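Before relying on records like the one below, remember that each one covers exactly one chain. Contacts with other chains, cofactors or solvent are not represented anywhere in the record.
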Amino acid sequence: MTDQTSTVRGISDTARWVAYFRARETERPDALFRDPFAERLAGEHGFQIANSLPDGNKHEWAWTARTYLFDHFLSRAIQDGADLVVNLAAGLDARPYRMELPSTLQWIEVDLPDIVSYKKEILRDEKPRCRLERVALDLSDVARRRKLFAELDDRGKKIVVASEGLLIYFTADEVASLSNDLAAGKHFQHWIIDLASPGQLGLMQRTSGKQLSEVGAAFKFGPPEGANFFRPHGWEPKDVQGMLKTAAQFQRAPAELLSLLPEPKGKFGNYPWTGVCLLEKR
């Protein structure tokens, strides 16, 4: 299949694209993380997506930095006593299999039925390192997600939520609604998200975003307020780390982008920023 418009068949295929970058990083002798499952999870189709989308394999540094930062924040939350991880839009993430985790930790993955089925089949012979469960659910179904969050709130005392690669596909109103729903839980304490500035959102919309829009996976969310967007919805930014800054720290950033450092303070506006944010419930 060589037609670009048919390479990505739907939003679930973006998970194969992300797995491709984890596989690439794992091959490095100085890898920041190792995901021995990524190549299988990406499959041939994941590699094809990366090599056919406009700029599809150009920003490996950003995907690597994002994975590293989510690993870092999750590890910190678990060390601080989190007993339940809720991974929204888990995609083909293999953290329950590859990270050092307490065997008593509860880990709930939530995603669309097709990606849950695909992942279950690929990893059928592998054993997770914690108590892993998968829930097939479209997070745009507000009633069902609220029911799930209420059930999970009764199962954990210190819950950390991760939503890697999710929010950019939502409108601002949809993100606000999800934020409010998570904040309503008594035991939901932390939330790890990735975020793009308005300037970066525009760049993404003009490149790979064109093809993704055609299959219902348009890039939408890049709030001018940055992480402060979440304050009125129950969440306080506690730690915000830029992906370019992180990539530069580990010699992953392209030389031509180093002129963008240091990052500006305050609102990012047209500055092409992406980052990972640790939010704490207010």
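Residues 118 and 124 are 10 Å apart (CA to CA).
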